[in-house]
Known about the structure:
The chain is α/β, with parallel strands linked by helices. Helices cover 54% and strands 13% of the residues. It has helices at residues 10-21, 35-44, 53-59, 69-83, 98-104, 150-162, 172-200, 204-210, 213-219, 226-235, 237-259, 263-274; strands at residues 2-6, 27-31, 49-50, 62-65, 89-92, 113-118, 139-143, 166-170. Strand 2, helix 2 (35-44) and strand 3 form a beta-alpha-beta unit. It is globular and about 70 Å long.
Amino acid sequence: MNVGIIGLGLIGGSMAVDLRRRGFASHILGVENERVNAEAALKIGLADEIVPLEECVSRSDIIVLAIPVGAAVKLLPQVLDMVKESDKVVIDVCSVKEAMCQVAQGHSARSRYVATHPMAGTEYSGPWAAMPGLFDGRACIFCDVEESSPKAVKLVEKLYDVLNMRVTYMRSDAHDMHVAYVSHISHITSFALALTVLDKEKDEKHIFDLASGGFSSTVRLAKSSADMWVPILGLNHDNVLRVIDTYIDKMKEFRDAIDAYDEEKIRALIEEGNKIKRIIR
């Protein structure tokens, strides 16, 4: 199986590592526009070759779009043009799915495309961030599979099975709403907290000395790449705004209770929040 991966960063590079290591891919072709990243991907061994886009598509059985969603939305129709009248399969790994599915809608090669979102990652980016086992035990969302050919879906299910992922099926609009709550808001609050601390605590030594594990774990997502997150928040605009509004309402409840020295209300809010322990351990 020849696998072509467009974008050999954290997700694409980690897929390359395990697909080769676990015997799914016999040859990996990479596409990287940044020269430094391309050289690093070859040196690390993420890809056997770095080739132009057209060559990657023509020589690959599966093509993975592992680039920021803003670029993927533009590139997907071009790649589908290249796979018309073939058995090649195209997938993406973006965390916004409705925009991806909409841009593929009506394309003559739509059945060759399977919209996926592996729910895994770290705050780091680039080929150097790639790691084995990143996807093990995590969930992968398949969206609008009724628009894809059963044969294509079956092959992509096999790919994610090799990565040890649990597959869930959703409509693309439902996916975008849910990830706004469980993923996108986490990054927004982390960015906001980092800005708050950087704005008020000008002495970096104090931040370094006093920041506990709790602060570090809460704010670590603020290290995430703007190149990835700007298009995510833009393309999932409506869902993200609804989540932000709800979050602001909850913050205001805390603020009002603290301002009123209302210990009972503060306790009630904390204990209500504690219920998340039933879901996440």
